[in-house]
Write a structure and sequence with these properties.
- With 270 residues, this protein is α/β, with parallel strands linked by helices.
- The chain has a single domain, classed as TIM Barrel (Alpha-Beta Barrel), CATH 3.20.20.
- It is built from ten helices and twelve strands.
- The strands form three sheets. It has an eight-stranded parallel barrel, surrounded by five helices. Strands 1-2 form a two-stranded antiparallel sheet.
- It is globular and about 50 Å long.
Length: 270
C-alpha cells in the first residue's frame, strides 16, 4: 500500500493567501532539550537525521514548519538544512521569548521585535518569513494593549519582511484580541483542554487563521482502551472549520507518518 500523504489536502491559512498542510512540523526538538515539557527524554538529532526528517516531511506533503528563537538552535539549523527549498515551505517563527543558558525571558518592545526579526531572517537564510507569532508569557492582554510588539509586526508586514503576523497566547481574551488586528492565533486545543474554542469560532467567522499547538496534549492524551488517541485528537480538531493546521513536534519518522496517515483518513472521510 502506498504511503498516505497530505499533498492534495492543503488549505488556506485564513486570509493570508498562503496554503498550508493540515499538519505542520514543530522544530523545538531540533534545537533545544532543556526546559521542555515532554513525557519522555530525547536526543537532539544530528544534521543527517534532521535532513532525513525534513525530506520525509516534504514527501508526506507537509509544507508548514514552525520554529522560534526560544527553540535553542532550531532557526540557525533550519537555515542551512532548508537551503535551496525556500519556495516549498511556509515558515512560521516567533518573537518575544528568548531562551538563554537554560532560562526563558521575554521582551515585547519595538526595538527587540525588530532585532529578533532581522536575526531570524539571517538565521533562516531568507528575506521574508511567512508568519510571525508573538510568543506570549501568559499576560496576553497586557502584551497586546500596552506593548509595541503588535504594531511593530504590522510595520514589518508593510515592509515585506513578514507576510502575516499573529499571537501564540494562553487565554481566550488574548486570542480574540489578537485576531482583531492580526492574521492568526495559535491556541491550545486538544482532548484535555478545549477552553479556547471561542477563538476558533471567531476566526472561522472573520476569515482569520488558527494554528493549534499541543494538539496531542504533548503526548499525554488518555482515552478508554481501544480508542486511538491520535485519531480522536484529529477528529476533534478538524471538526472545527476555523482550524487551518495542527503543529506536531515529533522527531520520530514513524510517529510523523502515522500522524499524517491519520489526518489524511480523518479529512478524507468527511
Amino acid at each position: 500500500m502506498s504511503q498516505a500523504t497530505l499533498h492534495d489536502l492543503h488549505r488556506p491559512l485564513g486570509s493570508t493567501g498562503l496554503l498550508v498542510s493540515p499538519l505542520g512540523l514543530g522544530t523545538v526538538k531540533l534545537g533545544r532539550d532543556q526546559g521542555v515539557k515532554y513525557p519522555n527524554g530525547f536526543r537532539i538529532p544530528d544534521d543527517d537525521e534532521a535532513r532525513r526528517l525534513l525530506r520525509l516531511t516534504r514527501e508526506l506533503g507537509i509544507n508548514l514548519i514552525d520554529t522560534a528563537p526560544a527553540y535553542g538552535r532550531s532557526e540557525e539549523r533550519l537555515g542551512p538544512l532548508l537551503r535551496g527549498q525556500r519556495q516549498e515551505w511556509v515558515i512560521v517563527s516567533k518573537v518575544g521569548e528568548e531562551f538563554v543558558d537554560g532560562l526563558s525571558h521575554h521582551d515585547f518592545s519595538a526595538a527587540h521585535t525588530r532585532f529578533s526579526i532581522e536575526r531570524s531572517l539571517k538565521r533562516l537564510e531568507t528575506d521574508f518569513i511567512d508568519l510571525v507569532l508573538v510568543h506570549s508569557d501568559g499576560n496576553d492582554l497586557v502584551i497586546l494593549n500596552e506593548c509595541e510588539v503588535y504594531q511593530t509586526l504590522a510595520e514589518l508586514k508593510r515592509e515585506g519582511k513578514i507576510r502575516g503576523f499573529g499571537f501564540s497566547g494562553k487565554t481566550v481574551d488574548g486570542g480574540l484580541k489578537a485576531l482583531e488586528q492580526g492574521d492568526c492565533a495559535m491556541i491550545t486545543y486538544n482532548l484535555n483542554d478545549q477552553a479556547e474554542r471561542p477563538v476558533i469560532d471567531y476566526a472561522a467567522a472573520h476569515g482569520k487563521a488558527i494554528l493549534v499547538k499541543k494538539a496531542l496534549a504533548s503526548g499525554h492524551a488518555c482515552l478508554s482502551p481501544g480508542v486511538d488517541p491520535v485519531r480522536a485528537s484529529f477528529e476533534l480538531l478538524f471538526a472545527q472549520p476555523g482550524v487551518a493546521s495542527a503543529i506536531v513536534g515529533t522527531i520520530n519518522p514513524l510517529h510523523l507518518a502515522h500522524n499524517v496517515a491519520t489526518v489524511a483518513q480523518v479529512l478524507r472521510s468527511r
